[in-house]
Amino acid sequence: MDSGKRNTLAAMVVLSLAGTAIAGPGGCGGGQTASACEGKGDNTITMVKHENAADKDIVDTAVSAGKFNTLAAALKAADLIDTLKGKGPFTVFAPTDEAFAKLGTATLESLLKPENKAKLASILTYHVVAGEVKAADVVKLTSATTVNGQRADIKIKDGKVSIDGSNVIATDVAATNGVIHVIDTVILPSDKNIVETAVGAGKFNTLAKLLVATGLDKALAEKGPFTVFAPTDDAFAKLPKETLESLAKPESKEKLAGILKYHVVAGTRIFSDDAIKAGKATTLQGGSVKIKSEGKNVKIDGATVVGADIDASNGVIHVIDTVILPK
């Protein structure tokens, strides 16, 4: 995932039974409120269900808890209140006020400005998953595709659950239109587009140069989403030198563009597991690439995927070790 995302591990998730309060070993439970069950000093659950949680939607449940004032303000600034009060269902990984405070006052004030509304919405929707995913199901996952479009990593270690490095500190807070899991750190999606992500990686210099030569760098910087099978510099180096030189000539621009478009699927993010299930994908060039699993490797036509599911703000990148050529 994007290097800007935080990587901290600490809190323990306690899975609750239906209709019971979430509690840590400190003895919280029963019908206690959130404020009556915090500060136990054992890094377990610091919030329990409200007795009337199931009578309120996600937004009202969060507001009534008294620990999500910044989240509520951010949802309002991003015009997402009505969305999360809608039918759903939704699963929300909700950062506490303390979680938002970790971002710093200057960052928070900047995000809440009208001119940063789109960026704020992108961050907030990265905390939302469509459908209701209870804690018992979360622990079976390695990632979750968010409403933002990007995937967040889920890890379980020593009985502790984290999403993109943020500790899950309370689970299964019921609402009429979904469920809330409380986290201790704001998780951040990638804010770099496909081209910026590739350039920043430092191993796609040839690809970046050729995209500029064909004008496709501008297309791949647009909203998308796109799925890109990105050949590394070493992959391009496998082509004969005279072939590369020929493709770089102005008169070969259309042919070069066709080859590059054959590495792009437009209009969707295809993550690796979905790609294998599909078995093929229609490219921007018009032809279809074959996708299959061979032992521990995934093949795109004749190329091997050597890096998968690299998120960008407008799509996803899969790194391949060979340039694939349209039929």
Short description:
It contains 14 helices and 14 strands. The chain has helices at residues 58-65, 69-77, 81-84, 97-101, 105-111, 117-125, 135-138, 194-201, 205-214, 216-219, 233-237, 241-247, 253-261, 272-278, and strands at residues 90-95, 128-130, 143-145, 151-157, 160-163, 166-175, 178-183, 226-231, 264-266, 280-282, 288-294, 297-300, 303-312, 315-320. A hairpin with a 2-residue loop joins strand 13 and strand 14.
- pLDDT averaged over residues: 85
- The structural class is alpha+beta
CATH architecture descriptor of the largest domain: Roll
Helix run count: 14
Question: How are helices and strands ordered from N to C?
Answer: HHHEHHHEHEEEEEHHHEHHHEHEEEEE
Strand order of the largest sheet: 2-1-7-6-5-4-3
DSSP strand tally: 14
Query: Between the first and last Cα atoms, what is the distance in angstroms?
Result: 33 Å
Number of domains: 2
List keywords for this structure.
2 domains; 14 helices; alpha+beta; 14 strands; elongated; 29% helix
